[in-house]
């Protein structure tokens, strides 16, 4: 490979990118050749370098040799530990030149910069959907493959990503290590804490291009957009009913199974969904959050906007979306009756 003697760097003959070490150049060239010479004997997955293979094998062995001296949390790689330690130090050395926001890692910054550019270079060959980062694409592809490589040693449940498994582990431990400095509420993951903090800041960075409504998370926006597209990709295998989100499907399936996994620690009553439990717990705490559905419904008496949800079929209006959805079943049942009568 060509060597630039002025800088002492080694340049890629394919794209011109330069590297300080020959090993870095060799690693980089695998991007162009697609070569992955290091195969995992456990699952057959291949990697560009022996160190990448070694890190991957720790998924199978469960080995986490790098331990944080601050909190005791362990990691598969020294780089993972280094990134984690920045949570304790608050160090965010990578700054966006566009908006000034800082990040713990160069990959986080790179992913963020694509928001400004509107760039999504990683495309799924299965469905054509594009992503800002390779890790997001890999995570998405597991929807198509059904692959869940991260298994809980406690209960055997498997997950698509290591972060999902980590969050799940806290269920067994009863641990919620991420605490909100504003109100003291604790969470299982840093992502859950970040979403919660937007309740205090009022930040809603994800905006619907169709109606302008804003949301705290990209997943909330995605679910909302299905109101416009009428897409309901999650179907119940028991009765065929379809839903906008997986959580709505999971909640619905409990009608069939009778499962009530969310238990009130105060009185022992169990519920089918977390939202029902949260709502119930307010009887014990007396809490009445400003943005609750009850509050919104009450506010409409003052504003005069008492029935904002209108049926597209007959024009009848309702106070809540749930009442409108219940009403819509009348039309679908009526259509089914007419159809069966013609047979």
UniProtKB/TrEMBL annotation:
The keyword Protein biosynthesis does not apply. It holds the Pfam family zf-C2H2. Residues 10-37, 38-65, 66-93, 94-121, 122-149, 150-177, 178-205, 206-233, 234-261, 262-289, 309-336 form the C2H2-type domain. InterPro entries: C2H2-ZF_domain (IPR050752), Znf_C2H2_sf (IPR036236), Znf_C2H2_type (IPR013087). One of its GO terms (molecular function) is zinc ion binding. It is found in: Nucleus. GO terms for cellular component: nucleus. Gene3D superfamilies: Classic Zinc Finger. Keywords: Metal-binding, Nucleus, Repeat, Zinc, Zinc-finger. Belongs to the krueppel C2H2-type zinc-finger protein family. This is C2H2-type domain-containing protein. The lineage of its organism: Eukaryota, Metazoa, Chordata, Craniata, Vertebrata. The gene is LOC104917072.
